[in-house]
Amino acid sequence: MNFEGLDPALAEYVPALHPALDPHLNASLLQNVELDPEGVPLEGIPVPDSVHIMEGMYSELHTVVSEVGVPVSFSHFDLHEEMLWVGNHGGHATSFFGPALERYSSFQVHSSDDIRQIQSLENGVLFLTKNNLKYMSRGGLIIFDYLMDESEDMHSLLLTDPSTLLVGGLTSHVIEIDLNTVQETQKYTVEVPGVTIMRQSNRFFFCGHTSGKVSLRDLRTFAVEHEFDAYSGSLSDFDVHGNLLVTCGFSSRMNGLACDRFLKVYDLRMLRAITPLQVHIDPLFLKFIPTYTSRLAIISQTGQCQFCEPTGLANPADIFHVNTVGQLIMSFDVSASKQAMVFGDSEGCVHLWTDSPEITFNAYSRETDFALPCIVDTLPHLDWNQDLMPLSLIPVPLTTESLLSDWPVSNSAPAPRRAPAVDPEILRAMKKVGFIGYAPNPRNKLRNQIPYRLKELDNEFDNFSQVPESPIGREEEPHIYMVAKKYRKVTIKYSKLGLEDFDFKHYNKTLFAGLEPHIPNSYCNCMIQVLYFLEPVRCLVQNHLCQKEFCLSCELGFLFHMLDLSRGDPCQGSNFLRAFRTIPEAAALGLILADSDEATGKVNLGRLVQSWNRFILTQLHQETQEQEGPQAYRGIGSSNFGSSGDSVIGQLFSCEVENCSMCRCGKETVRVSSTLLFTLSYPESNDKIKDYEFAQILKRSICLEQNTQAWCENCEKYQPTVQTRNIRCLPDVLVINCEVNSSKEAEFWKMQAEYAFKKLMMKKGGLELPQSREIPVGEWNELGMAEGGHSYTSIEELKNVWIPYSIKMKLSKNKELEVYNWDESTEVCHHFWQERRPIESTYVYDLMATIVHILDSRTGGSLVGHIKGVTHQQWYLFNDFLIEPVDKCEAVQFDMSWKVPAILYYVRRNLHSKYNLTIKNPIEASVLLAEASLARKQRKCHATFIPLMLNEMPQVGDLVGLDAEFVTLNEEEAELRSDGTKSTIKPSQMSVARITCVRGQGPNEGVPFIDDYISTQEQVVDYLTQYSGIKPGDLDAKISSKHLTTLKSTYLKLRFLIDVGVKFVGHGLQKDFRVINIMVPRDQVIDTVYLFHMPRKRMISLRFLAWYFLGQTSTDRAPRRGGSEEGIGSIPGPEGWGCCFLDLID
Questions:
Q1: Which residues does the record give as a divalent metal cation binding sites (predicted)?
Q2: Which end of the chain offers a freer environment for a tag, N or C, measured as fewer CB atoms within 10 Å?
């Protein structure tokens, strides 16, 4: 603003937002206003103490003091909450809540500069001072503090969108600031310096200048589109509404400034001035109040307020006076709802005017957060007239001397107080970093309050030393862990050597192969083991081979082949789970878990594995249906997948079901279908749980009867319908989903186990459960007690048992099903009778596997399986890579507090006699022949490999050099310990990107015959280009120029080489085969990394071995691996390293 003509005494005074608003301006600006020709001043009009608020009229509702004696510099109605913000010349901000103007918060924004503008945002409030922009919460916490150059003198700001802000002042530029990054993004030069007011419409930015001009600027480029020269002196305020722009300001008169009583009005459609509006007061502020009409509120500095239409004449009757008691008006604002106005004066008072007693500042305000009330503990009142009042209520001063009440040391003994149990909610949400746990505050207790329960027993002091140091161990009794050790979730401890120094044999002393658990969605490991021990299924998938890239049956066959060759070493199901993640049906059923869901334990694993069980049986049934023609993999030809026909899965699990629907009108509808498994259905009874045998519940679940609403074709509407289900045949493998998903089902299992235990005790002669006793060492050894803290006496073996080891199912001639629990004594009695009189459609099923959900709040729970081994006598526990023989009673004992049944597998006796269990390798030599690339832009020249010819097919003992390159799908998760060492929590997930095989003999020795780039649809985090040579785009079929194939295609080539019996030569092949997810017998691997390796020393790199023994440096070979485009003769890429492998073993 132009300060010429003002009092020189103002030179040292810091101006407010608009210098024209300052009370120290020329006294001529503060002259009285005459309302009529007789010269009666407005101050002479009496203002009543109480004004009746009429519709559409404003009157004073409340007046409060912001800070006594400090002028208000800016006032602003919050746009998101029912709050009013006031800033003053001392840099202090105060907020008031609601129409009652209750003080909400008050804090210092700047130590000396005045607050020149306030803008409310969703999460806080912006405050503008002279050269500082501060973003603070509504409670006064600083979110960010943006300092500008000291030469800046800012006066105005404009929020153009939620994350962009324009700031202008007495400079030649306007700054654009990004609120997300708190960085200056643009600096726009203005032709007329001094931007003190900014507004925005849907067409222009409006900038008011101290010279009295208003410029209209483009919304995108901030270029000047038009300019209005409103006043010759200075501009005090303007506002925009619709197509009208109204201004007020000062004109130059006799070398000074005088307030102009003409409001300049401009039409934004024609971009020209229209008839000015004359008012009866000295206008200093103005704002549109567009409610029913486009009214203008015009305010003078002495407190007069006039309302008028911008296109009509001003009426003196529409003038009101703000009772400022002689103080000057310094700020003015109108609420977003147009129901309230606020005035700030030079004495620090805030006046709220409203058009009704009950108003809101915004149409839709959110709820305001208030601080918790401060609870102050007051001292109790003491009545000196009461002789029985205890003197201990009077606080005594601290003293260093001994008190009379101090007990001597000889008469006291320290009694340790056990720490209270940690809230289970804290333990559930806790995240451990090293040995320290972090968890958010659940806020279910008041601050500094904790319940104190003195429940210490005498004998507990003796066991005080058994309390674990970590608070994690205090949830249950300190010396008792509910979950046995062998059932707990197992994890791999990674060191700086990775898996090389981890002893898997400690967890598995059998020859069965476990499965590693760190791969995403590996919750199904126990179910994979169950399918592996079903020999018809195992033989089926190993004989199966189709042309589908992501076929679960093929991948399951590859995995089972690895389990066959493992001899006790753990395997990975990475390729199978990779194909599993690509199945759309699996994602639709919610079977694909995110890493966070598995880590936090928020998933109901019992319900999840039952859904996975239903899905995998259906998927295998669809993929292994009988096809016309051979199933061998022939390359890229068409597939007959999906043709009609039965499968071995259907023969094993399928059961033909007859569904009958009976409407109450008498119409019966019968539909025949098939099912692969059954789900237990429990009795719906609110009374006391009755005694049921497992066979009764199973029959009730198979032959299900339920009432439901269904569409009746006869009635042509939905009617109550009785639906019954009957089976026409019995399956060879009976799969049962237990469906224990709530406490109601868990209580049912618990009560049935108690009933079964009581009946068994009575059957044995009225025995009762003896009291707990110490088990002698000899008896302990006889019971085969395994590590984990569980001991089973002959009576303990009968506890928590409800399901039988065998069941008998009979289907009568009229298709009625009979189910019985079948035990060994019954079997001996009926053995002779069965041989003499065989019964048709009568099967005896033996329990083959149980899948249980282990409930453990410390680890989030896990899934384990009990499986009857190949001997059909010994049972084994499969807990990922932990495999341990267990007693058969453990397979049927379910303590519902931590061991919940999920799936049961019953297998028909003499099952194997019905099926062909011969495994014929379906992989033929044709997989090594030339095949087309998946890449659309593959170059025709500079081939990086020559495929094998028919006369070059590998034989037993042939040497093949192999090298593989990988990319990273997930980064490694590690933590840095206090001693500086790094501990790996979760290793990086690698995926094979390139596989190269080199001939080891023959005329083309050293020439690659496989150089496949593996196409991937998964997100790659790091291509490891500096090591692998793989670049972004090399694995994308749309843009790659490499020889691109599927992982399955290249996997089959390696499988054929392994099955033929070739010997692979390479450097670090153990890691290569692990990432490829293939098992190679040790006698077929020649690894140069072990040729010159000393125990407990690091591995020597191939580059050093090639230099030391062969005299070849990195300049002789490629500086980067993977550059096979340069030709085979120079041997620069992985094929060059393959030759180096062969040279080293020579």
A1: 963, 965, 1072
A2: C
